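Quick one: sequence plus coenzyme A SMILES, need structure tokens.
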Amino acid sequence: MQDSLDFSIIEHGSHAYEQACLLRDEMLRKPLGLSLFDEDLDAESGFIHVVGLDEAGAVQAYLHLKPIDLEVVKMQQVVVAPHLQGRGIGRKLVNFSEEHARGAGYREVILHSREVVMDFYAALGYRKEGEVFMEVKLPHYRHRKEL
Ligand SMILES: CC(C)(COP(=O)(O)OP(=O)(O)OC[C@H]1O[C@@H](n2cnc3c(N)ncnc32)[C@H](O)[C@@H]1OP(=O)(O)O)[C@@H](O)C(=O)NCCC(=O)NCCS
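Reply:
Sure thing.
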């Protein structure tokens, strides 16, 4: 099985974006009885969309960065396909995205982590802030990292 993916920035509305939406829906919404396609995906047109593609060009990992202001982006919708988890791909996806954000002039990444994956973000240098809160039916914590 392939362990490394090619990471790249893709366009909103592209074929890869549509594939990524299916992966996001499967992993982050359907298990909660929700559908990603009930959400306003047009609102994501100004976001930075990052994918990890396998040798066949299929999307196996995704996240996006939502610009908050000229210095801060919010990382959201971080997913690695189940059969590829635990092999360092999530770390590479986040590293690639941080590098891109730094190159674009951003200085800080903020995110809301599901409680169950907080150790993933801690391993990548994200600092937990404040109290637990509920979002999309699950407990979350705010995190941030300076680039
Ligand atoms: C969270 C997720 C993106 C991690 O991707 P991954 O490719 O499995 O992660 P990696 O193999 O790169 O792991 C990097 C580090 O984080 C740790 N880690 C990974 N997943 C973890 C988890 N679920 N809980 C705790 N630690 C985790 C690893 O042990 C590793 O630490 P190390 O380098 O010190 O050994 C992936 O498990 C996923 O898609 N989960 C489902 C969707 C989800 O919950 N997304 C986050 C929404 S906030």
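The pocket of coenzyme A is lined by residues 27-28, 78-80, 85-91, 113-114, 117, 119-120, 123 (CB under 6 Å). The chain has a mean pLDDT of 96.
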